[in-house]
Please model this.
Amino acid sequence: MENFRTLLTGLVAVLALSVSHPALACTAFQLKSNDGAQIYVRSMEFGEALDSKALIVPRGTEYTGTAPGGRAGKKWAVQHGYVGMNVEQEPSTVADGMNEKGLVVGVLYLPGFSEYLPAESAPQDKTIGSWEVANYLLASCATVEEAASALRNDVYVAQQEFAGFEMVMPFHWWVGDASGKVIIAEYVDGKLAIHDAPLGVLTNSPPYEWQQVNVSNYVDLSPVNRAERKLGDFTSINYGQGSGAVGLPGDMTPPSRFVRVALYSHWATPADTASETVNVGFHVLNSFDIFNGAIQSKQADGTTETKTLSASGKPKVVNSDITEWAVAHDRTNLISYIRTYGGSLIQKIDHKTIDFGQPGLRTIELQNEFAPQDISSKSQPLAAAEAQ
Model:
């Protein structure tokens, strides 16, 4: 009963947060190709434009973490070069990335439940902000075991505001390595929890343990169509495809997306190669794509933007989340694939061609404009055999 009250309180907090803070409806999962490649796929939805670019972080880059009160925190130098998606509000920080060892870290929202370690107890030489966790793990770790150890022993993630948004950013992290192993790291009630994640999926609130248990409510669903059934003298017939999944939640809430992506990612027919599996991954992710206007909320009209973090002004209904970008990381062949909302074109970054020994942060501008390829001039005569 006490656990139920805690969960109920958290859900109320989530609803309160959705009114005044940006929503975030990310979805992450993994697939494995028949030739053994481990593929991670995720979408990024946010209630504020992130204007992300691909950030290249070479070995030897020095970072200084943030301690409460804006003080300098933990210092580290990058051991493993990595490529990630940055955010305009903190361009040297990544919200998702993969390093040269095949470790992937995805940052997803956990509103209403996320609470980090006490600020008043923060040791300055170990402390970092929640928004700096991905940078630290990618820079320092090659496996999920190393990442879990680093979170437990090497860093202190303190409860503190992120200056870019003037709020405590409620995150949890999807962490997977080249072996295919996945863990989920969360700070709930001021304590670190690290979960083995055999499903390989993550969305948002409630926390991971609850989400994983909830999947059991849908274990009877199947991609296989149901057979005809007799009800007395009446025969029940399937008139369309997909009857095995009747009852699958189709809304965009985190629990529904968690169930759906857990089933879809395990129903997807494995492809032979890594690149074919990336293609399958983007098709699965299409089921979670949020177009502008699909999610709306009441929030303060503090700017002329449709999306705002302002806490002042008269509330009005505005468009909220969109799928700003989606990525796939091939953790075996070290290739990242990126698709933006505006562009739809899938762009590729081959990590093996990047000199991670070259000093200095570098960015790659992403194609973010709708530019269909004109194939009007590519017609060919129909072969005689085909015409018959």
Summary: Residues 328 and 358 are 25 Å apart (CA to CA). The longest helix spans residues 2-20.
